[in-house]
Amino acid sequence: MHRCPPGNQAALGEGNVRTIKAILCASAIILATGVAAQPVAHDDSAAVEIVPAQPDWAKSDPEMDRYLDDLMSRMTLTEKIGQMTVLTSDWDSTGPSIRPNYVEDIRAGRIGAIFNAYTADYTRELQKLAVENTRLKIPLLFGYDVIHGHRTIFPISLGEAASWDIDAIRKAARISATEAAAEGIHWTFSPMVDIGRDARWGRVSEGAGEDTFLGNAIARARVEGYQGEDLRAVDTVLATAKHFAAYGAAQAGRDYHTVDMSDRTLRDVYLPPFRAAVDSGVASFMTAFNEVDGVPATGSQYLLSDILRGEWGFDGFVVTDYTSINEMVPHGYARDLQQAAEQAVNAGVDLDMQGAAFMEHLQQAVDDGHVDEATIDRAVRRVLEAKYRLGLFDDPYRYSDSAREKATVYRDDFLEAARDMARRSMVLLKNEGDVLPLVGNGRSIAVVGPLADSKADMIGSWAAAGDRETRPVTVLEGLKARLGNSATISYARGADYDFNAAGSTDGFDEALAVARDADVIVAVMGERWDMTGEAASRTSLDLPGNQQALLERLVATGKPVVLVMMSGRPNSIEWADANVSAILHAWYPGTMGGHAVADVLLGDYNPSGRLPMTFPRNVGQVPIHYDMKNTGRPIELGEPGTKYVSRYLDTPNSPLYPFGYGLSYTEFAYSAVALSAEQIGPNDTLTASATITNTGRRAGETVAQLYVRDLVGSTTRPVQELRGFEKFALEPGESRTVSFTLTPADLAFTRADGSFGWEPGAFRLWIAPSSGANASVPVEFNVSRP
Ligand code: NOJ
């Protein structure tokens, strides 16, 4: 077997430019394996069949059909259109405007669903209005943004993704659904499965990061967690895959901005997590605000009908995002709301969120012959089916039970699960001289920074029903609770984190005074909670306010500085990486976050999180992701400083921290990869194994990551793609062999002619602790022609 230095690192660059040797070696592999450097012709038998999904809960139900046929035969067109409208209650606003008369609208049967209303009592009250006042007594559906917890708040979604712990993520969704369902909610607007590759975009915090493979696994886990095994169970809620589609690719990272990408990238990178959600039986989809290739997603026949219904066989319902039908007018796609309503319903939208476009214009559209009544019937049927499957026609109040609510919300085991999820999500980015874990006993710790004792920040954005005032445990509180009187803990806020970098330095003296008296400084810095999430894009990824200036002063004291970062995106912390002793990324860790940070800092939990997004050195590298293309002039072709290669003049190509990266308080050694075969046929399975040993002195968890590179394709292929991962714990000295199996279908992509399938040829594969690691030597295998 031919062996070369890892091609993946060579392709992405490591800061120090590699020599031409790597390229020669790579060419040798291609020649040795006999793959021509020409596009490989594919055979149709290598196409990967896309089988439409049919989840158990959505299987046909003759009794339901009879019930709904009868109900629909008695509905007027106005009543049907009512079922296609969802409005917010006035409890909360998650968009620009609120239609004031929702109570009157409920009574009149003009709306079929409400969002931003919860608690058993309030949902019961609103449900009563519908059931007791409308002619057909059709119950309301209650939706809500239950994104990373309902009352008990888990780490932000990106933080959960950093755990790479699929069971824990599923469990967090299960608990969130249980709490939400006990407060009258039937339907969550989650999971957000948008791929996020641009750290400027504030909504990267809500997703699972930059990678499609990891994103697929997390999408499935969240849908399974929310919907459970049986939607009739009162602790399950309908899930929503959002925002369909490509919302994460907003130009320049500015929220709601234009998206324009190749169909290949759309299908290979941005759509798969949506497809994974469909395969897991997700009940609903939410459209995106953005346009894709000139067509607003909410009016896109291509996305909503051709792909979602046609290719994937999705039979749940599609809701718009907030007023996104109305927004087709400023997009310049519809001349007025009448036309926008027609475009949306004809494209495949079933439910209009907050726009009242259907409510006000669908009747006219049918009268004018622009929309078929059959189209309306199909949409209404999907919404009614969801209500039926939830059991609302049997008992409209079954989710609004205040005794269950009381017994469920903030259960001790939920809080404990939130603490566990939080510590699993934290990523140790640096630990020079093993400054962590901290020795608590008898020592003095200075806790400094605007996020050190801020309850509001702990739960991050989109913690809709989360308590920001009393419940969250701050880092200061967590450390105090853990250490009691065994250590001296002093605190100073020190700096501000608003956008005024020249802000007052009044707090610096106090912070420096406590710092000078301490053995170690824990600086808790980052972004204010509302600097990520919706409408929270930034053009700088630096620490906001005067935190950087304070951090520099703290380092200048000569004391060890541990930086605990809280943020919902990758920040540019190159200076910190070079100058502080240790960095722990804690995201926004949720209600129990302060305890979880203490667990990690004191070594009660050995950090095991891995980055789900690449951390750039500075904003100029963005968008940066681990699976980029090699280009015709990869940086390794030149000696340092060579001009005509794909590089920056002022920054290395390599990121500050690569995707998949994270340290532990112990060390792991990865063996060479063993393959079951060097050549496989179209129907064969390949097994790749490596033995991983805990070579340090503490028990800990590693995440073994399998990367593959398709060396030559009919279209160019990324320098590496994640195709497997496994997280597991090892005692000191313990070893474990991990095995991943691959079939040619796992190597499929959108080929030059637009078909989806794999191509024969040579592949490189390695198993490593991150996408940037040097720990594993790649091996090659070939897939033969069908
Ligand atoms: C707008 C957001 O884009 C979406 O994610 C959310 O679910 C809705 N508002 C409802 O709050």
Short description:
This protein folds into 3 domains: 191 residues, Immunoglobulins (Immunoglobulin-like), CATH 2.60.40; 304 residues, Glycoside hydrolase, family 3, N-terminal domain (TIM Barrel, Alpha-Beta Barrel); 184 residues, 3-Layer(aba) Sandwich (Rossmann fold). The chain is built from 24 helices and 27 strands.
Structural overview:
The chain has 786 residues and is of the alpha/beta class. It has three domains: 191 residues, Sandwich (Immunoglobulin-like), CATH 2.60.40.10; 304 residues, Glycoside hydrolase, family 3, N-terminal domain (TIM Barrel, Alpha-Beta Barrel), CATH 3.20.20; 184 residues, Rossmann fold (3-Layer(aba) Sandwich), CATH 3.40.50.1700. Helix content is 30%, strand content 16%. It has 24 helices and 27 strands. The strands form seven sheets. A six-stranded mixed β-sheet has the order 11-16-15-14-12-13, sandwiched between helices. Helix 22 links the parallel strand 14 and strand 15. It is globular, with a radius of gyration of 27 Å. The N terminus is likely disordered. It binds 1-deoxynojirimycin. The site of 1-deoxynojirimycin has 8 residues, from loops. 1-deoxynojirimycin (NOJ) binds next to loops.
